[in-house]
Write a structure and sequence with these properties.
alpha+beta; archaeoglobus fulgidus dsm 4304 fold; 8-stranded mixed β-sheet; 5 helices; 8 strands; 26% strand
């Protein structure tokens, strides 16, 4: 078992998250300009026993898709459906999906949370630290924290705070639709997180990397399994 998987127990998973959270770097260490960006979507099948990861590689300038990968592997914690442990449960499949892309992206968007997590290590932060890749978490709802009322203007964002600590942003990517929760994963600053997310929004509520990864995962889920 890889050191980033944990020891297979819930207690071990929590301890690993606390340990890896200490390695998160919240400063900008990504290539500028961004040459490639990837999106990752994670789903679970077979009652949580199997992790399905869809990965899409995009051109960093045009946001046009360049390649994709789809991986199904056993979950690292098959007996757990805890949303706070997504990073550990999906890490083996995420690692394999990243390896199947033709090149490592300069930045990864992950469907889920970065540091906006009770132990400051959501799936995007776990993936970022474990793979040593700049990463951002994009989620549809918060796991914790409070925020001020958000303006309806496109791109408006307000801090998400947990007991006074700034852990992410509520981001209005599209007026009239519910805001996203975006937070740094690894090697991306808090300020750049909201800016990069909006840079990748092309009309849909989701940034293109996670939107396309979600579409790939949905197409796969709709197909009958051959195994």
């Amino acid at each position: 078992m890889n050191a980033h998987d944990g020891d297979g127990s819930i207690e071990g998973a929590h301890a690993l998250q606390r340990e890896l959270a200490q390695r998160v770097r919240k400063r900008d260490e990504f290539a500028q300009p961004l040459r490639t960006i990837a999106g990752f979507d994670v789903r679970f099948e077979d009652g949580g026993a199997t992790a399905c990861v869809a990965a899409v590689l995009l051109d960093g300038d045009t946001l046009q898709p360049l390649d994709e990968a789809l991986v199904r592997m056993p979950s690292a914690l098959p007996g757990s459906d805890d949303p706070e442990l997504l990073g550990i449960r999906a890490w083996p499949a995420l690692r394999e999906a990243l390896a199947r892309l033709p090149q490592r992206p300069d930045l990864a968007f992950v469907d889920g949370h970065g540091i906006a997590h009770p132990r400051r290590l959501g799936i995007a932060a776990h993936f970022g630290v474990a793979a040593d890749i700049p990463s951002i978490g994009v989620a549809g709802k918060a796991l914790l924290g409070t925020a001020a009322a958000l303006h309806e203007i496109r791109g408006a964002h307000t801090p998400l705070r947990d007991h006074g600590e700034h852990v992410g942003w509520l981001l209005r990517s599209v007026p009239g639709q519910a805001p996203l929760i975006v937070s740094p994963g690894h090697r991306v600053s808090m300020t750049a997180t909201a800016q990069l997310a909006m840079r990748c929004v092309a009309g849909d509520r989701l940034p293109e990397p996670t939107r396309l990864a979600d579409l790939l995962a949905s197409r796969h889920a709709a197909q009958p399994r051959n195994d």
